[in-house]
Design brief:
By secondary structure, the chain is mostly beta strands. Helix content is 8%, strand content 37%. The chain has one helix at 3-7; strands spanning 15-19, 26-30, 37-38, 45-48, 55-56, 59-64. The radius of gyration is 14 Å and the shape is elongated.
Length: 65
């Protein structure tokens, strides 16, 4: 671990790849989204804001750093 890793904090936010529970489409969602995220294919709600971390309604298939 270098000196800069101690001084500069890493972000706690991530991108999630979420699978839609209705149609199976996968799309990327920010972990701290501030708006409701709809599926691009069927329009189902994938994620909702909660004042901090996003409430995910689908299945998280991957977490990207």
């Amino acid at each position: 671990m270098s000196e800069w890793d101690k001084v500069i904090p890493k972000p706690k936010s991530r991108f999630y790849r979420i699978k839609c529970p209705d149609c199976g489409n996968e799309q990327f969602v920010f972990s701290h989204a501030t708006t409701i995220v709809h599926c691009n294919v069927c329009g189902a709600i994938l994620a909702e804001p909660s004042g901090g971390k996003t409430v995910v309604n689908g299945e998280v298939t991957a977490i990207l750093d």
